[in-house]
Amino acid sequence: MIEPHGLPLERFTVTGQWRNVDWQANAPIDSKVTMPDGKELEGPADLRRALLSRPGQFVQALTVKLMMYALGREIEPRDMPQVRAIVRAAAKNDYRVSSLVAGIVSSDAFRMQAQEE
Prior knowledge:
The N and C termini lie far apart (39 Å). The chain is built from five helices and four strands. The model has no long low-confidence stretch (mean pLDDT 90). By secondary structure, it is mainly alpha-helical. Strand 1 and strand 2 (27-28) form a beta hairpin. The chain is elongated. The protein has a two-stranded antiparallel ribbon. The protein folds into two domains: 4-52, no CATH class; 55-111.
């Protein structure tokens, strides 16, 4: 299964260079995608608008990834109430990354990690 959020960025190479043709396939790049909610996106500008239309959802996904990195483990269902609380608190501060980081490091999941024996 292909992650649809990545297709609008397909015209970028791994180094960020813009391209209209897939050099290996020698074919034009089709970066159009229909999202699960039915919206059609093509290119970075459409992706940006789609992400900005649902900031809470985007910030929650970002918070989960940051928290996984901070905890050094996968996020479990029992962690989600803390993730949602961090996102709600960050919303009051315009979803600043500093608010997310502060919320993560002050969460019980981060502060009360068990030490490995």
